[in-house]
Amino acid sequence: MLQINVNRHAGAGWEDWSDYVLPLPDLSVGSSGSAYTGVANLTFTNPPATPLKDWGLQVLDDLAVSLSNPDGVIFEGLVDGAKHAPDPGGDQVEQITASDYNVLLDYDIVPHVWRSALETDKERLTWLFETFGTHGITCGAEVQEVIGDMPGGADGKPEQEFGPSGLRDAAAKILQISGGKLRVDFDLALHHFVTEATASPFNLSDDPNGTTTREYFGFSLEDDSVPKVDEVVVFGAQQAEGAGLLTVTRTASDAPAAAYRRIVPLVDDKLTSVAQCEAAGDAYLASNQGRRTGKLKTIHAGLLGGQVVQITNAGTGLTAEPFAIASVVMTPDTDRPGVYGVTFGDEPPSQAAIIGGSGGL
């Protein structure tokens, strides 16, 4: 059963507005890219108050309850669009769109400031958000340390300059060095990571056992348009004077004869050893072999964007093959408790592999 809560930010906290979500098929909740982020769209009919932008919206699904999600929250965020339209019958109709808490990254200002402390990327992000963030975003274990040496006057490097800008743009300057990504989850916890894929709570099969694997329908799988690269020539850092650039060639295991190979250059002067160049070349090849993408639907709650799910499909020869979930969109259905549309694709290589073990940028 779905429950839709609204927070007017007026001290009352979450209010159950489930009875006003009409028509129910207009409701959709999407999880995209990472777990516990996404968007929601729904229509309220004759609600107790007119929804306003930045009010809180929460969608609970008791079928999505798990150890990691004890309340079954499939969406939480802020209203970012509201269309008020009385219908001919006299009902007050409110069409609502809402986005997850990542929008809060645009709600704070960072003045012109320099940072000179000798610290990690995790410590610098924590300083930035604890100093200038005012909307409850917290920095804890979810903020991973990717590199251990940020620019700062104490280590002889130039100080890092921030602002005047929004908090998102200021954080982006740190990400340019760390190579990481940021997101804010439904609990307002900041995440900093290179790769953050987690296993799905169950896998999918055309012959499910009802416990570890569940059924699905509407399955399709196709190759994407990424061209296949057969060989990459990696040009790294300058060697001794007159020796030219460090150069390493990596070739795919299934590459055709030399006359038919697609060969591309990869230039990165931060690669200072043969091992780093080899790792970067291998990662580039892995990410440019063409990837499969697919879609399916299931009535089982719990799948989220960013998870890795194993799919078995006899017709296409898949046996517990892992795929990264790109997005999940839940819509109610007249004869099912809810339908979850899942898009997925081959797992991309981690950015840690792509940077070749060089310890960051």
Overview of the molecule:
There is one protein chain. The chain is mainly β and 361 residues long. The chain contains four helices and 25 strands. It has helices at residues 121-132, 167-178, 274-287, 351-354, and strands spanning 2-7, 14-16, 28-32, 39-45, 56-61, 73-86, 92-100, 109-110, 113-115, 138-143, 160-162, 165-166, 181-184, 189-193, 198-199, 203-205, 213-214, 217-223, 231-238, 245-251, 263-267, 292-298, 307-313, 318-331, 339-345. The chain has a 15-stranded mixed β-sheet that branches. A three-stranded mixed β-sheet has the order 10-14-13, covered by helices on one side. A three-stranded mixed β-sheet has the order 20-19-21. The radius of gyration is 24 Å and the shape is flat. The two termini are 47 Å apart.
In short:
The chain has 361 residues and is mainly beta. It has helices spanning 121-132, 167-178, 274-287, 351-354; strands spanning 2-7, 14-16, 28-32, 39-45, 56-61, 73-86, 92-100, 109-110, 113-115, 138-143, 160-162, 165-166, 181-184, 189-193, 198-199, 203-205, 213-214, 217-223, 231-238, 245-251, 263-267, 292-298, 307-313, 318-331, 339-345.
The overall pLDDT, averaged over residues, is: 86
Percent in helix? 10-25%
**In whole angstroms, how far apart are the ends?**
47 Å
Give the helices and strands as they follow along the chain.
Answer: EEEEEEEEEHEEEHEEEEEEEEEHEEEEH
Task: Supply Rg.
Answer: 24 Å
Structural class based on helices, strands and sheet pairing: mainly beta
